Amino acid sequence: MKKDIEKTEVVEVFADGACRGNPGPGGYGAILKYGKKTKEISGCDPLTTNNRMEMMAVIKALEQLKRPCRVRIVTDSNYVVKGMTEWLPVWVRRNWINSQKKPVSNRDLWEKLLTLSRRHRIEWNWIKGHAGHPENERCDQLAKEAIVHCKK
């Protein structure tokens, strides 16, 4: 299966989350690009946090993939990137206890993200938010629009 992944083109995923209040109503937006195809997705939660929406953007994007892929995820969320590349292995080893000896926040979403990521070869990339990156700006817009249309 991993050899098949190496032969495929890279799916680019751009993801962002937003929240009005923290907690409060939140939204996420993501753009998936594969070759010449582009797909935008968004959604919301009437009571959530910014970190949860950042994670949901990536989760919902990965759920769109029908088969194992090479994926380049681009997000302005250090929480997501560091969580997946640095913190998660330690949390799992410590039975989901963080460095402050407390249960890991958002464990439900971390577990879902971990499960989804296992079937793909993922490259995690952080970019500075609100710095003019076209896809990041569009994802931010999608997330904010989702909040406006969110129903309780």
What do you see in this structure?
The structure is a single chain. This protein has 152 residues and is an alpha/beta fold. It is 41% helix and 30% strand. The chain has 5 helices and 5 strands. The chain has helices at 2-7, 50-63, 78-93, 107-117, 134-148, and strands at 10-19, 24-34, 37-48, 70-75, 121-126. A 5-stranded mixed sheet has the order 3-2-1-4-5. A hairpin with a 4-residue loop joins strand 1 (10-19) and strand 2 (24-34). Helix 2 runs parallel beside helix 4 (107-117). The longest helix has 16 residues, at 78-93. The protein is globular. The termini are far apart. The mean pLDDT is 93.
Sheet with most strands: 5 strands, mixed
End-to-end distance, in Å?
42 Å
Sheet with most strands: strand arrangement:
3-2-1-4-5
- Total number of helical segments? 5
The value of Rg in angstroms is: 15 Å
- Tell me the β content: 25-35%
Low-confidence runs of at least 5 consecutive residues: none
Give the helices and strands as they follow along the chain.
Answer: HEEEHEHHEH
Mean pLDDT: 93
Structural class of the secondary elements? alpha/beta
What's the total count of β strands? 5
Q: What's the shape?
A: globular
Which percent bin holds the helix content?
A: 40-55%
Q: Layout of SSEs?
A:
Elements lengths: L1 H6 L2 E10 L4 E11 L2 E12 L1 H14 L6 E6 L2 H16 L13 H11 L3 E6 L7 H15 L4
Helix pairs in contact: 2-4
In short:
With 152 residues, the chain is α/β, with parallel strands linked by helices.
Keywords:
alpha/beta, 152 residues, 5 helices, 41% helix
